[in-house]
Amino acid sequence: MVRPTTAQEGGTDVEETAPGGLGLAILICRLFFGAVDCGDHPAPGMPVTDLPPTPECAGTIPWYELVLEADGEALDDQDAATIEDRLTQPGVCRLVVHPEGAGSIRLGIATADNPLDLVQPALNPGVLSFHRVVDDLPPGAPVGPDQMALASMDDDGRAMIVEIEPLLEGQAIESADAAIAQHGGWAITVRFTDKGRERFGDITTDLLGRRLAIVLDRQVMSAPYIQEPIIGGSAMISGSFDEAQARLLAAILNSDPLPPGVHVVSIEMP
Length: 270
Known about the structure:
The chain has two domains: 134 residues, Alpha-Beta Plaits, CATH 3.30.70; 127 residues, Gyrase A, domain 2 (2-Layer Sandwich). The strands form three sheets. Strands 1-2-16-4-6-5-3 form a seven-stranded mixed sheet, with helices on one face. The chain is an alpha+beta fold and 270 residues long. The N terminus is likely disordered. The chain contains five helices and 16 strands.
């Protein structure tokens, strides 16, 4: 029997189902072999992504099934592929992503972590843009008609005023990787396309001594002062990232954007 519950996640109600009891055979299997070996997850013939073994994937690993939808838009095969790319990360032991009827996606995931902590950040649209910084102002400060106030990913309460019109957009990024920065923290290294490299060189030449905001989904990832023109075709985005955040952000930058409003509508443990 399955017992429905409701959890409050990110301001929305997410329906959760927790097993009120397990069949004896499945229970014995889980006790001896672990949940990912018990056959109570992906149906035969369903493509499964097995990730390289890690210590986190040893022992009994719960299997969760989630249903995803988008506000006012049907999700398709490309969206499923994007979500799979983004979730192929440490902490995920096995993964199944496939579209269902009515424009939803069913996601199966084996993980020792809270599945919502892994999945929800990967569902952000992933729209990247570069903007000229006008000023740092406290929340509520007046903003000009061609400007917008954006929060920082650091969530420190500051509002950064930037020009609405982007100087460069995410299509100029060819690839992104998580890397350890010179100061020892984690960062994201991006490489530009040929056209992007030329445009980024022009932008950083024009902004010498000023700040350039790197914005993802209307949040400022970083806003460095431009010390010299950057003409080599790559740049490093640093911030208060840990390894998991840096790897996920790199995966998001490497994937196609998702429609806005993708969210978890249900989660269950079969």
